[in-house]
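Support request from a user on the community tier.

User writes: "When I paste my C-alpha cells into the form, the page sometimes reloads and wipes my input. The last time it worked, I copied everything first. Here is what I submitted, just in case something in the input itself triggers the reload:"
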C-alpha cells in the first residue's frame, strides 16, 4: 500500500545535549505519525540510554535505509551513524568523538534530502564550539547546509503561528551590523522571505514589513541615516518589482503589529532585534527555517541546553513544531 506521509529526517544534534531526549519525548506523540514518517538520524546507544531519564517505553529499531523503516507509532526508526558509549561521555561535555558524530548526522541527512530520499530534514540543536572540536569551520547549521547544497543566497526565518521574522544579518557583533547592511542584502532577504511564504506556506500574496535599524526608524535622520540611505531604497526597489512590502517601520511597534496579523513576516536587521520579540511569544514552540535552500530544513529554536541535558526535563515543544512544519511544507510542495 502507498503511504503519502512524507519521510522527515530528524538529526539527533549534539549527542550530549538535549537532542536525544526531545526526540524521544516528541515521538511519543502519536500526532507526529499522523502527519509524517519520522526517521531519526543519530546514535542507538545514546538514545537507548536516554530512555531511562525520560521514562520512555518506545522501541528503537535500527535500519540501514529509509525504505526499511516501518514508521509506526510506538517504534522509533533510526539510522545509526555512530557508536558512542554512554558510560564514556558526560552530559553537557562534548568531545571530539561526539562532535564528529554531530556533524555526520547533519551531512548524512542533507545528502538524503538532496537525493530526494527524505522529504525534509529537521535538526536538533548543536553547539558551535563543539563544531570546532570536529574541525568543522562553520558557525552553525545554516552555513554548513548552504555549503552542502551549493546555495549562495540564504537567510534565517523564525516562525510561529503568530509571528515570523527573517534576519538580514545573523551571528555577528552588534557593532558591525551597520557596516554589513546593504541595499542588495536587504532586497535579497525580502525576496527570500516572500518566496518562502508564497511557495512553502501557501500564502498567495504575502505582506512583509521591514524594521528600521535605529530607534524610531531613524526619526528622519535624527538617530541615524541607515533607513534613508540603505533600508528605504531596498524597500522601494522591492515594491518596484511587485512585492508587497512596507517600511522602514519603527522596531518598537512593528512586531506588535505583525503578531496581531497585520503582516505575514518582519524582516529584521539583526539577530536580537528579531529574536527577542519572537521568543517572547514563541519561546516553547518557535521553529528555525533556512530560506533559499533547495531542500526543506527546519530546526528547533533553542540550543543544546547542556545545563539540563540528561535530566529528562527538556521541553519538546519546539521540536514537535519543527517536525510538524516540515511535514506541512513537504505536503504543500508535493501538491504544487
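"...and here is what came back when it finally went through:"
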Amino acid at each position: 500500500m502507498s503511504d503519502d506521509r512524507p519521510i522527515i529526517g530528524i538529526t539527533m544534534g549534539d549527542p550530549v545535549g538535549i537532542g536525544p531526549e526531545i526526540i524521544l519525548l516528541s515521538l511519543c506523540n502519536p500526532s507526529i505519525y499522523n502527519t509524517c514518517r519520522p526517521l531519526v538520524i543519530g546514535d542507538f546507544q545514546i538514545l537507548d540510554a536516554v530512555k531511562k531519564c525520560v521514562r520512555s517505553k518506545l522501541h528503537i529499531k535500527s535500519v540501514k535505509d529509509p525504505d526499511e523503516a516501518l514508521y509506526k507509532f510506538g517504534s522509533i526508526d533510526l539510522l545509526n551513524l555512530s557508536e558512542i558509549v554512554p558510560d564514556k561521555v558526560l552530559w553537557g561535555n562534548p568531545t571530539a568523538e561526539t562532535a564528529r558524530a554531530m556533524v555526520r548526522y547533519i551531512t548524512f541527512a542533507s545528502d538524503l534530502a538532496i537525493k530526494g530520499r527524505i522529504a525534509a530534514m529537521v535538526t536538533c540543536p548543536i553547539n558551535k564550539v563543539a563544531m570546532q572540536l570536529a574541525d568543522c569551520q562553520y558557525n552553525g547549521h545554516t552555513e554548513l547546509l548552504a555549503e552542502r547544497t551549493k546555495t549562495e543566497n540564504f537567510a534565517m526565518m523564525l516562525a510561529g503561528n503568530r509571528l515570523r521574522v527573517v534576519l538580514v544579518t545573523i551571528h555577528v557583533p552588534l557593532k558591525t551590523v551597520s557596516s554589513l547592511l546593504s541595499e542588495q542584502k536587504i532586497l535579497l532577504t525580502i525576496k527570500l522571505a516572500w518566496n518562502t511564504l508564497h511557495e512553502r506556506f501557501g500564502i498567495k500574496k504575502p505582506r512583509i514589513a521591514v524594521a528600521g535599524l535605529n530607534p524610531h526608524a531613524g526619526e528622519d535622520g535624527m538617530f541615524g541615516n541607515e533607513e534613508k540611505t540603505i533600508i528605504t531604497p531596498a524597500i522601494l526597489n522591492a515594491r518596484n518589482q511587485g512585492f508587497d512590502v512596507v517600511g522602514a517601520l519603527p522596531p518598537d511597534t512593528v512586531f506588535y503589529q505583525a503578531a496581531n496579523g497585520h503582516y505575514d513576516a518582519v524582516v529584521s536587521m539583526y539577530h536580537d532585534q528579531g529574536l527577542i520579540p519572537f521568543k517572547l511569544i514563541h519561546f516553547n514552540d518557535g521553529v528555525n527555517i533556512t530560506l533559499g535552500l533547495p531542500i526543506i530544513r527546519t530546526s528547533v529554536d533553542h540550543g543544546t541546553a547542556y545545563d539540563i541535558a540528561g535530566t529528562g526535563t527538556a521541553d519538546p515543544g519546539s521540536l514537535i513544531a519543527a517536525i510538524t512544519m516540515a511535514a506541512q511544507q513537504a505536503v504543500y510542495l508535493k501538491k504544487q
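Agent notes: The reload is a front-end session timeout and is unrelated to the input. The chain has twelve helices and twelve strands. The mean pLDDT is 93. Escalated to web team.
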